[in-house]
Structures are given as C-alpha cells and as structure tokens.
Amino acid sequence: MADKPADTAAEAEGTKAKPKRKSKKKLVLVLLVVVVGVAGFGYKAMAKKPAGKAPPASGPVVVENSLTVNLRDGHYLQFTAALQLAVGSSPKALDNYTPRVMDILIAQASGFTEGALLAPGGRHALKSDILSALNQFWPGIVVAVYFEQFVMQ
User: Fold this and answer.
1) What is the mean pLDDT of residues 47-73?
2) How far apart are CA 63 and CA 67, in angstroms?
3) Is residue 68 domain-resident?
4) Are residues 38 and 69 in the same domain?
5) Taking the alpha carbons of 9, 10, 14, 20 in that order, is the dihedral positive or negative?
6) Are residues 130 and 77 in the same domain?
C-alpha cells in the first residue's frame, strides 16, 4: 500500500509536468508564429513595389524672395514660395515677370485669415489658389507650389 500512494504521487507529478510541457510548447509555437508573421510583414513592407506608373518628371524649381503679408484678420504671414516649373521650362521663363509673380503671391496670401491657414487644408488651399492664379498668366508653366518658410503671427 505504501507503493500505491507513491505511484499516485508520481502520477500526480507526471500529470502536472505534462501541462507545463504542453504550455511551453504552445508558447514556443505562438512565438514562432508571431515572429514569422512579423518577418513576413517586414519583408513585404520593405520589398520594392513593382513599377506601375513612373513618377511625374519634375522640372526646375524657382525660389522667390521671402515675403511678409498682412492677413485679413490683422495677423501677418511671412513665407517663401518655391515654384515647380513644368518639364522643359526654363527658370528664366519667369525672370522678367518677378514683380507680377510677387504680386500674385501677395494678393493670394493676403486674402486668407490666420484661422483659415491654421485649419486642416489651409496651406493646401493657399497653394492651390496661388497655382491657379499663376496659371491664368502662364498656363502650364508652374505645376506646383511649395513653401520653404511659413510663419504666422
């Protein structure tokens, strides 16, 4: 009878050891699945994407002088605009028209308020207004507007 309690105690310990092994195996399996998943996601994210569309070719960039403009609500905006020209256009295309370009930049920026420029999409709205005004005088020459400096007070 002394052997039976020892056997049941050994069996009890044996049954306790098996779940630990199973839980360790499950843990290792789960970790392996996670590591493989992360590695696959990383590989897919880092892999080069197939060339479907070629990015649009970019022409020269003309940087205008820094401007300080009074906004409609009494605040002021200091900014420097860079104008992306169409491919094949010469930066000299606008050289003779610098005063007119500066006037367009000032006129478009002064029509905004500080709140409108701080709102989501405010800077984008100013860029599109400048672009459309420039394209009225020089259609197809200026394709994008970028701000190198943009400070409001």
Assistant:
1) 74
2) 12
3) yes
4) no
5) positive
6) yes
DSSP H/E element including 142: strand 142-152
Tokens 């052997």 belong to which residue? 3
CA distances from 38 to 26, 44, 46 (A): 18, 10, 12
Please check whether residue 108 lies inside any domain of the structure. Answer: yes
Report if residue 52 sits inside a domain: no
137 contact partners, CB below 8 Å, separation of at least 6: 97, 100, 104
> What global pTM score does this model have?
0.61
Q: Give pLDDT tens digits for 114-137.
A: 888 898 998 999 999 999 999 898
Sign of the Cα pseudo-torsion (148, 70, 153, 117, in order): negative
